[in-house]
Automatic annotation (TrEMBL):
Protein kinase domain boundaries: 1-342
UniProt source species: Algoriphagus limi
InterPro entries per record: ACAD10-like (IPR052898), ACAD10_11_N (IPR041726), Aminoglycoside_PTrfase (IPR002575), Kinase-like_dom_sf (IPR011009), Prot_kinase_dom (IPR000719), Ser/Thr_kinase_AS (IPR008271)
Domain of life: Bacteria
Name listed for the protein in its UniProt record: Phosphotransferase family protein
Amino acid sequence: MKEMNFDALKEFLGEELNCDSQEIEISSLSGGFSNLTYLLKTPVGKFALRRPPFGYKISTAHDMGRESKVLEALQKAHYSKGPKPILFYESEDVLGAPFFIMEFVEGKVLRNKLPASGPIPNEETLRKLSQNTIDSLLELHKLELEESGLIQLGKPEGYVQRQISGWTERYNRSQTDPISEMDKAAEWLGKNIPQTENRGFIHNDFKYDNLVLNPDNLSQIKAVLDWEMATVGDPLMDLGTSLAYWAQTEDADILKMFNLTHLPGNFTRKEVIEYYSKHSNLNLENILFYYAFGLFKVAVIAQQIYKRYKLGQANDPRFAALIEVVKAAAKKAEKSILTEKI
């Protein structure tokens, strides 16, 4: 993590929050591979600050203003699992980049290892967490769009086509190694876009490590994090991305780095699809397409971050292994397409 001088930020927060800047503590929160998150401990409460990563910016995925707008719109839509936005600061004069501040939700986040302290989820807990995760995804997909203003955050018409074109272009721009399976997946996706267009509000990165859980009951979801890619589009594209992250026991180990879904007790991908289908009015007959897209998208995200690492714009040692994620996800996509199995 690059060292940062927080003096200007503390002074800014002291004025904005009407508290003593000398009593503000700022620390880095461990987490994902993109936007940086910091914990702010102040005399008036705890908050989370989000800012873009250092160096190369990946499209609009790190648009702080957008993430803040999404959280504001979710409040209007009466969605209870989005952290409350506090403020957005567009200028770079305080922190060297735009940033926004939201409420800090106390809880536990399950990453790619079981918790080192506190309760450890058993099979029953993970089973219930699987169900609650898909229920939360369904809740999001069914939000009212017009009166809440959520519709203004995206353009659902032609969404799938734009996504296939956009992610293919992103891959071409960030490619560092020849990976034939990626080229084949991109070609297949371009030729197999479903004719039916679905519409709903979507998260676009919905997985266990973006969920804040009740530490006393790890199957209960308190909040959903990382809304920078949320938009209005096809909910099945969102489901496909979640399925791509939903690793199972037999999957390559490198694909288990994002989730604990491979542990006993969790839904299988087949059970996820069946549960979603049972509780949704959407037609899932083309779910193979959405799953293959999800794997391709996960691979491109890893590829983009890996390129930053290769260019020396990010020195996090975790990034060195991301090219293996690209290869594994691409192979998984090709195998799924050829076998028509998820």
